[in-house]
Structures are given as C-alpha cells and as structure tokens.
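User: Sequence in, structure out. Go.
Assistant: Echoing your sequence, followed by the structure tokens.
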Amino acid sequence: MAGFHEVRFPLDIALGARGGPERKTEIVTTATGREERNARWAHSRRKYDAGYGVKTIARLAEIVAFFEERRGRLHGFRFRDRLDWTSAPGNAAPGPLDQALGTGDGARVEFALRKTYGTVFAPYSRPILKPVSGSVRVAVAGIEAVAGTAFHADAASGIVTFQPGHVPPPGAAVTAGFVFDVPVRFDTDFLEFDLSAFEAGAIPSIPLVELRA
C-alpha cells in the first residue's frame, strides 16, 4: 500500500472514537413506485471521528504531532477499531479456525486474510490488509500450523504464504485467526482547534477514512 506508515494511531484516543462502515447504494424509483437497488461499492468503507477520544491538551498536542508527521492526508496509518478488531466473534481471543481463507490444491501457496460477516442470506467477505504482527494463527485441515516454519504472515499486506514442504494439499481447508487494524488516513488537510472552547468541553473534529488496496 503506497504512502503508508506502519504506525498505529494512539490506542487510548481511538478508544473514544465514533464511526463505522459506510456503503454506497444507488436507489432508482420506477414510475410504478417500485425500487431498484444497486450496490455501487463491493466493499464497505469505514469512517471515524477520533476527536471524541481527546480529553486533554496534552493529547491534543500528541494528535497534532501525529498529523504533521503524516503530512495531513498524504500518508496512511493503522487505526484500531475498538468495536471490530479480531477474527473471533465478540472480539474474543483469535483461534486458528476462526475464518475460512480457502481450499488447498497442492500448488497454491498464498492465501489472503479475510473476515466474513453473516452466515445465511448474503455473507460479506472483508479483506483484512493490516493484521497485527505475531497475532496470525493458521490451520490446515483443522490442524494448527507453526508460524515461521509452515507459513509466514505479512503484517503489511495480510497475505499468508506457506513455506516449501508445508503447502496445503488438495481439498484441505485453510483457516486463520488474527488481530487486525484498519488502514486509514486523515480526511482533512486542516485540523482546526479552538482551545478556549476545548477547555470548556467542546470536542474537536478529527476525521479519518479507511484506505482501500
């Protein structure tokens, strides 16, 4: 991912952020009153306002320094979505059987991390691009593989690569569990703060938007 800094937005500030996934749906109403709906985006895009997590002048100064080092909207960075940050339901500790990545064919060595939402009507498979280093656990045919020996997980891309001699055989289910961050950038080139209002309890706006590969 070009123009990206592998650094995480301060966790204590992220804890107080607001936001969530956004989708783009086109709705056309016909002459008879019926609707035709079309999804313009294949994947949702998350937006956040991290200003709600800033409670002190010291934290505000920390964000200004973080913003300046990213050059505003120029460079992306990691953000921990405290509502959705592990592969397991309910943000439990990740396990190697949490998410299906694909099926082995005896030759395929790369599998992309993903997280599936829903089970029956129209499950959505979300690409996971920024797993936390050291958190990825992988299983082949239900048996956990040894990280570093059987596979390598790239924390910068979310790609799991199997090593020679450990390639999943034909028909073997490949699954994984992990902790992950969301790749984001600032959604403004201008951070405006009114310190007098801030000290009186006003919340600054610090907009962030998810980056796509």
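User: And one key feature?
Assistant: The chain is about 10% helix and 35% strand.
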